[in-house]
Amino acid sequence: MIDVAVIGSGISGLSIAWHLSKRGYDVLIFEKEEVAGGNIQTLRRDGYILELGPQTILADGKVEAFLKDVGIEPEYANDDAKIRYVYKKGRLIPLPLSPLSFFLSPLLSFGGKLRVLREPFLSPSVKSEESIGEFVRRRLGKEFLDYVVAPFISGVYAGDPDKLSVKYAVKKVYELEQRFGSLIKGALKLRALGPGGRLISFKGGNHSLIEHLTSRLKVEKENVVLKIRHKEDRFLIDAKGGKYEARSVVITAPATSAGYLLRDISWSASEEFDKVYYAPILVVHAVVEKGSVPRGFGFLVPRVEGKRLLGVLFSSQLFEGRAPEGKELLTLYLGGATDPEVIDYEDERVYSLAEKELKEILGVQKVEFLNLTRWKKAIPQYTLGYGKYLRLAETLEEENPGLFLAGNYLYGISVADCIRASYERAERVMHKRT
Ligand SMILES: Cc1cc2nc3c(=O)[nH]c(=O)nc-3n(C[C@H](O)[C@H](O)[C@H](O)COP(=O)(O)OP(=O)(O)OC[C@H]3O[C@@H](n4cnc5c(N)ncnc54)[C@H](O)[C@@H]3O)c2cc1C
Fold first, then answer.
1. Where in the chain are the domains?
2. Cα–Cα distances in angstroms (integers) from residue 183 to residues 65, 115, 153, in the given order
3. Looking at residue 182, what is its pLDDT?
4. What is residue 191's predicted lDDT score, i.e. its pLDDT?
5. Residue 249 backbone phi and psi in degrees, to 5
């Protein structure tokens, strides 16, 4: 009998498995695909390193400690990655990095800036839960929402600010109002809205982290789990590769797959998890001549500008060795919760609209396309009322000692969130009730 069966070899599953294996547990990881890593996939081709999923990881002390523990050196992003642009009326405007540059920047109108200045004098909301859109319009005004927060939300969640819950999707911001009565006062006191870490990747791209972990753990690829049953003090697992028994099971598969696997344990939980909405994303890799884009991280396109591109990263400027000499590798994002239909467009249609917009925005003459990745269910959306899923996960764990849930639909969507959550998840497994 296995001590712990981990379902899914994304970063959540691998990092939890790492902590447990280190403590002497016999851990077996089941992965349905032929390549491990879940969302973290890197394509190395013709001198290019293409990140098909996450591009950068925002590593704080806890993430750095994890990497040290597993024994992999991070690669730090170039200093220019601090420079980020927002597209507004035909121009790329650098996102202001200080209060003074905010007031000098053309990003917001004079009226828009005055509206932001009123924020410390407004009283907190009495509503128990608001969307990010409602919250930001109320505290900082519509312009700040359109040109600062909404592009940020599409950069992180590919989400719609009017659907996402401020309490669950941007918890730190929500807590500033709760604690200090004002975001500006709170942020100044805590300096809490800063980046909170350093941007990293790895030599050879983000999949190097996955390769590093899988070579030290027991992973069975192409072994999809089909059914899990709870019987007394154990779990019976039916997988493509056979039948297994485990003392504990950690399901890190996405919500919909987790729901499917839970059907024999709790039908109602299974139905609920199946409802979690994932926004689709199209990731397009393109090449332009070196020197034809400004220095920096990339740009975001506010939805109010009427373009289809959500944003573009200047990937070869972030880390060394991402593109051959003389070439600039760009990663384009389209789709998201505000433009989901683009996911079904033919490749040629996507390339032609991406080329048109890249030429308009960057003024480049020639664009070459390398690759297109379709993530039909890319990012779980922490929508209004999302707390019910967290409560459901807690209840399931309480009612089924030895069953644990993890993954980006529960404890934060970034790679760093998944790594941070793995410490607490692994502790729970080690202290399971019998
Ligand atoms: C396009 C894109 C860009 C992103 N950009 C960033 C970024 O720049 N920075 C950042 O921090 N985050 C980014 N993210 C988010 C981040 O990559 C993910 O939230 C994180 O990698 C999720 O990890 P996970 O292990 O929770 O889930 P997943 O990576 O989804 O892993 C779950 C695994 O479970 C497996 N599985 C499912 N069902 C079964 C089954 N029945 N049996 C066996 N295996 C199963 C799946 O095949 C998968 O491998 C991005 C995500 C996407 C899609």
1. 2-38+206-276+383-430, 108-190, 278-380
2. 30, 13, 17
3. 85
4. 65
5. -130, 130
